[in-house]
Amino acid sequence: MKPDARLTTGPIGRTLLMFSLPVLGSNILQSLNASINSVWVGRYLGEAALTATSNANIILFFLLGVVFGISMANTIMIGQAVGGRDIEEARRVVGTSTTFFVGLSVLAAVLGFVFTPHILAAMHTPDDATPLAIIYLRIIFIALPFMYFYNFVMMTLRGAGDSRTPFYFMLLSVVLDVVLNPVLIFGVGPIPPLGIAGSALATLIAQLTSLAAMIGLLYRRRHFLLLHREQLALLRPDMAILRALVMKGLPMGLQMVVISSSAIVMMSLVNTYGSRTTAAYGVASQLWTYVQMPALAVGASVSSMVAQNVGAGLWVRVARVTQVGMLFNMLMTGALVALVYVFNRHSLGLFLGEDSVAIEIAQHINNVVLWSFILFGFTIVVFGAVRATGAVMAPLVILFVSMWLIRLPFAWLLGPHIGAESIWWSFPLGSVVSVLLSFGYYRYGNWRRSHILPVAPHPEAVGNAPDTSMGVPCEDADAGAEADEGVARQPS
Prior knowledge:
By secondary structure, this protein is mainly α. The protein folds into two domains: about 20-235, no CATH class; about 260-450, no CATH class. Helices cover about 75% and strands about 0% of the residues. The chain has 17 helices and no strands. Helix 3 runs parallel beside helix 11 (about 295-310) and helix 10 packs across helix 14 (about 355-370). The longest helix is centred in the N-terminal third of the chain and has 37 residues, at about 45-85. The protein starts with 5 loop residues before the first helix and ends in a 48-residue tail after the last helix.
């Protein structure tokens, strides 16, 4: 299976859309899977079991969040190498990343399995839920190496320009998990009822089966990034690549930490206004998860496309991909925001009774907050573009400023004066600050000169003329000689 050149030569709008839709589908599948599993556990195993899985899933989210940044660094390096048609470099990245991910996941699994009781105790897990949480979390730790490597393979494929294959196998994993949950929880025929252990075991089996099937298919297709017997020496870590994985991956992972930690603090502020307000905020935030999905999918897709175009030296396409990504965010996120506004009460009624007082509060929260996710979506798309060059510190700083220095202080300081309104209005304020800072960095920052690996300047841009049926002005005078071919190199 040869590299697909569509990300560097295909029509930008259609290519970005077709690349984004499978990523969006994967995000939706993951969320639905978690929701369905929670229904099985909560409805049939009780509140203690649901509390156990909730505590365990917080730990899992943290562990996956840390590895997210390293996976994204791997995706960007592969994308740049594939865009520059340097397949050997892409294979070196795959070899080093494989060794790193396997080693990291096994270490995390062993330490987590041994210290599970201590981790749960540090989280003040309720006594009635602790024994169940220990059983559940230890099985999850056994599954962790497969989860990590599954994530690594999917991100590698996206870096190579393939978002469909990860979606198909995510669908397989989710279907297996959903089907196996009730079978293993309650038992069927010779299979004994395993309770909460069955729910965790379903995840383990689903992830392992999907991973094995995906790798088998890739070998059958003879994917160009697969390592064969004569290339096993590439599994020996390349220190430059390893350093880039860590130095570029950690800031991107820390972005997840900034977001999740600020959400925890925000929840503690909401809790001070009583259970009705907390319930309203909880159901509103359930809807926000889905509203943000298009921007997250487009941002991830922009990263993959920009990385390949940076590797190919096609800087005019980089700008166009970013512009189209922002347009898609406005259309897709805007459509969902409008839909929720129109059906505000009905959508909230899926989680709360129609006569619940919390619905009125949740409606007001949505009225104040929802529109701001369009702005934050612009920020996500810009982050996707700039980090594809290796510029990862600026997005981290912008997120920290908007969430920890603007949003949280605003909610905390104005709380005594305007009550819970300070929390709701802190979201639009944070989004405005983040989008202004990100646009400023995109326009005036030095992200175009960033690099994820120390490489020599690209000798020649690879690709065809712009695919918009119209010529695009070059960004600098030095590119003028290439304008007739629609190719521009990075400004020197």
